[in-house]
C-alpha cells in the first residue's frame, strides 16, 4: 500500500500535480465572518472613503499652512539677520545724475538695464565706492 | 476595470453608500479569508486580517484607480496586511518555524485548513507545500488555489511577471520533489 503511494507520487506529472492543487478541499469560512465585516462597516459609519480619510488626518491642511508660514518667517528672519550682520559690505549709492557715473553713456556703450538711479555694488570692507568726479568725467 | 457592474458599484461606494460596499464584502470575503487562512494557518488571525483588509480598502477606496480588478486590489492589501502582521509576530518568535510546525501538526490544531486532512493525498500535498519557502508557498497559493493569472499575481506581489512565473514553476518542481521523497 505504502509502496503504491510512493510510486504514485514518483510518477506524478507536473500537470496532474497542478490539477490536484486546484482541487484541494475548500477552506472552512467562519459563518459569522460576513456579519462581522458588515458590522465593521456600519460601525465606521456611512461616510465615504474621503470622509474616513479626513477623519484620519483632520489637521492635514492646518499643518501644511502652519509649516509654510514657519518657513516663510524663518526665511525672513535669516534675510534680516544677514542684512544687519554685514554693515558696510553692501553699499547703496543714490545717484541723481547717472551721467556722472557713466561718462560714456551718450556714446551708447552702456547697456540699457544699467540706466537706474540706484546702483548696488558689493565691496570689500574699507574700500570706497570709486565715484567719478565731474572733472574726471570731463564736465 | 473589467466589469461595468463593478465600476457602477465602485461609484456608489465612493459616494459613501454602505450597501454598495457590503456587496463587495459579500463577493470577496471568502476568497480573502481563504488567502489569509493559507498564509497564517490560524483561524483567528485570518479573520482579523480579513477584517483589517476590508477596513483598509473601505478607508482607501478613493485611491483605487481601477487599473486592476477589485479582487486583485483586495488581495494586494491582504498580502501587505499579512506581511505587516508577520513582521509584528517576528519580534517575538520566528514565524516560519511556527508555521512549519503547525503544518506538521495540522491534525492537532484548530486550523481553518483542517479539511485538507480529510483525505490522505490533500494532506500530503499540503505538508509538502509547508516545506516550501514562504515566497514559493505564496505563489502556489495565489496561482493554484486563488486562481490568479501571473499578471494578476505580479500586481499583488509588486513583482515582475517573469519573476512570478519563474518562481511558480520552480515551486511546483520543488513540490513534486518533496512529494516524491515523502512517502
Descriptive account of the structure:
The complex is a heterodimer of chains A (139) and B (183). Chain A has 139 residues and is mainly alpha-helical. Helix content of chain A is 49%, strand content 7%. Chain A contains 6 helices and 2 strands; from the N terminus they run αααααβαβ. Chain A has a two-stranded antiparallel ribbon with strand order 1-2. The longest helix of chain A has 26 residues, at 60-85. The termini of chain A are far apart. By secondary structure, chain B is mainly alpha-helical. In chain B, 73% of the residues lie in helices and 0% in strands. Chain B contains 9 helices and no strands. In chain B, α2 (18-40) crosses α4 (70-90), α3 (43-59) packs across α4 (70-90) and α4 packs across α8 (150-157). The termini of chain B are far apart. At the A-B interface, α1, α2, α3 and α4 of A face α2, α3, α6, α7 and α9 of B.
- Name the chain pair whose interface involves the most residues: A-B, 38 and 52 residues
Oligomer: heterodimer
Mean pLDDT across all amino acids of chain B = 86
Q: Which percent bin holds the helix content of chain A?
A: 40-55%
Percent range for β-strand residues of chain B: under 5%
Specify the structural class of chain B: mainly alpha
How can the largest sheet of chain A be summarized?
2 strands, antiparallel
Q: Indicate the mean pLDDT of chain A.
A: 67
Instruction: Write down how many β-strands of chain A occur, each being a DSSP E stretch of 2 or more residues.
Output: 2
Global geometry of chain A: elongated
Order of helices and strands of chain B: HHHHHHHHH
Strand content of chain A: 5-15%
**Structural class of the secondary structure composition of chain A?**
mainly alpha
The first-to-last residue Cα distance of chain B is: 46 Å
Defining key terms:
heterodimer, A: elongated, B: 183 residues, mainly alpha, 9 helices, 73% helix
